[in-house]
Prior knowledge:
Radius of gyration: 42 Å
Strand order of the largest sheet: 14-13-12-17-18
Shape: flat
Structural class: alpha+beta
Number of strands: 43
Largest sheet: 5 strands, mixed
Mean pLDDT: 83
Oligomer: single chain
Number of helices: 14
Low-confidence stretches: none
CATH class of the domain at 210-221 and 238-351: Alpha Beta
CATH architecture of the domain at 210-221 and 238-351: 2-Layer Sandwich
Helix content: 10-25%
CATH superfamily of the domain at 210-221 and 238-351: ATPase, nucleotide binding domain
Distance between the termini: 107 Å
Amino acid sequence: MKDDHIFALDIGTRSVTGIILEKAGKMYRLIDYCVKEHQVRSMLDGQIHHVEEVTRVIRDVKETLEKEHGPLNRVCVAAAGRSLKTITSTARLELNQKPITDRETIKHLELSAVHAAQNKLAAEENHNYANYYCVGYSVLYYQIDQNKIGSLIDQSGLEASVEIIATFLPKVVVESLISALTRANLEMDALTLEPIAAIQVLIPESMRRLNVALVDIGAGTSDIAITNAGTVVAYGMVPIAGDEITESVSDKYLLDFPLAEETKRKIVIEGQATVADILGFESTISYEELIKDIDESIDKLASSIAEEILVLNGTQPKAVMLVGGGSQTPDFTNRLASKLQLPTNRVAIRDIDAIHVLEKTENLPKGPDYVTPIGIAIAAKQNPIHYISIKVNERTIRMFEMKELSIGDCLVHAGIEINKLYGKPGIASIITLNGKQITLPGEFGKAPTILLNNQEATVDTAVQNGDFIEIKKGMDGKHPEIRIEELIGYIPPVKILYNNNPFELKSAYFVNNMKQHIDYLVQDRDVIEVRTPRTLQDFFTIVSTEKIPDDAQYEVFVNNQKISFTLAETQILVNEKPVTLHYKLKENDRLTVSPKNTPTVAMLLKQMNKKYYHQLKVTFNSESVIMKQPQLTIKRKDKVLELDEIIYHNDQITIEDKIIEPFIFQDAFRYVDIDLTNANGRFMLMKNNEPTTFYEPIMDGDRLSIVWD
């Protein structure tokens, strides 16, 4: 093979595709390609299950191409995206109202979540986390006290947390791939991931700020990759694809699987196909008939892919690109657009014509099947993946360089949970503030120190093969140092007017029953009391030298039960309204004193929280009317009392509930004025637009009217 030629293999569930490209400046030219199908089920969900069988097909493709182009010794390949494991996990950090002020702490929190995802994956798969490569992670959201928030910087609360989605690749996928290539006398020239390969040629970096989903629908599975904010943020897979549609065709028309696959392809390409079933009956199937007959399977495939996209992305993407043979499933683009609630022109099949760096030549294959193989050849050369060795605290780790690696990636791979290397918080102080016990947390422990090749670094610092990383535990925090003003905050005095004279209600601070200044440094086990005059009682006992106005205590016996209420000899007014001594004074309140009130029946009912009138609200000729009648009978001995009548100390009062007579239509005339100026002829009484009589009962909200002929 010539030096400027690139040999690539796409090892799929049903077939192996070989591609030879030639690099010409910034462009690529297709030289040749070859497709061979597996004779047995040697691949399952992108994982090689029978190395020897897969090797046989690889060797067949290799030898076919070698007949025209000479020996092929090195090859670019891709690990299947469907082999990726996606795990969500959470990490938490106690804040105790001390905000995070630097992004390094947030990054450490994120890495702790990645480490948790590692452990979660290992537990699910019954493997050590070292059996997986972390190929990337994305933050789903941050939280303060379980409330989602955009950024943790300078946010206060009790606890900060982050939820991430991390993606891992099993090492066995790469190792089995290398074994199959070695058996076929091929050396791995470069390695990439299948979703990265397709994205590399269809969605250049300049477009990855857009939220786009790329779906590669193969034979057995459908691989999904999501781009956003300039990068690939998530990978996923659903275990149904083109074979699901083929099986539906087979069942519907009684065809064996190979013939059903051939029939499906022919209908998609030519619009119809004539085929004989296993009983020998021949029929012609049109494109429209096929859609109708396998509607359920098409809908199932679209629903499964749409659901996975929404899970990975959290919402609908801006657009969806489809590649792979299964993307040509009849009516599939319309179904997927409908499931995602996208316009139909936002879901499209992309074939190799969409690869801008590929020269358009006559020998180009048609359809979306070849996007991934060509992408593998280009992406594996442009962004190959290498193994590198790094030392972390004297321990050598080997990593899969699928992207620019950072110190944080190395710490995750080495199993170091960075949050556990923070210094311990200082010993807390326990105090009592206004009768409530409060814990004052100590100073946060310092972040761990990270050295890269003996130079200070951060978790975002990039690493190279052979680098040496050292991470040291951070220093412990100090005992809390806090002053009363920091603990309580400044309490401004309340300014009021009393009989037109200005007064200030100021707070006083007592520590262990001794008055202290606001700058006092709080000590462990201190008992602190803030005494702030706020009520009228406080004003007359702490601030003012005048005495509290005398009160007269009234006792009245209602139905033989004693009722006590206070009636000031001199009434206290705030802003010209009567108040009690429990009233809390506010800024600029005007406090005055007025002569005493005379106790009345109305005041007694108010004290007892009783209503004298039963009332209802109706409309009469579209005007609002409130009708009322006493619902209580109030007596002193045999005398019936009205609301404004005076009651006296030790009065014996009886209060009885009256039988409430229902209001009838004619009662309304006691509350309204009827204009008879234009009245002429007969009239009709109406209730809620229905004829009625004078004696018809009425209810709250009824609409009444009188209509003249």
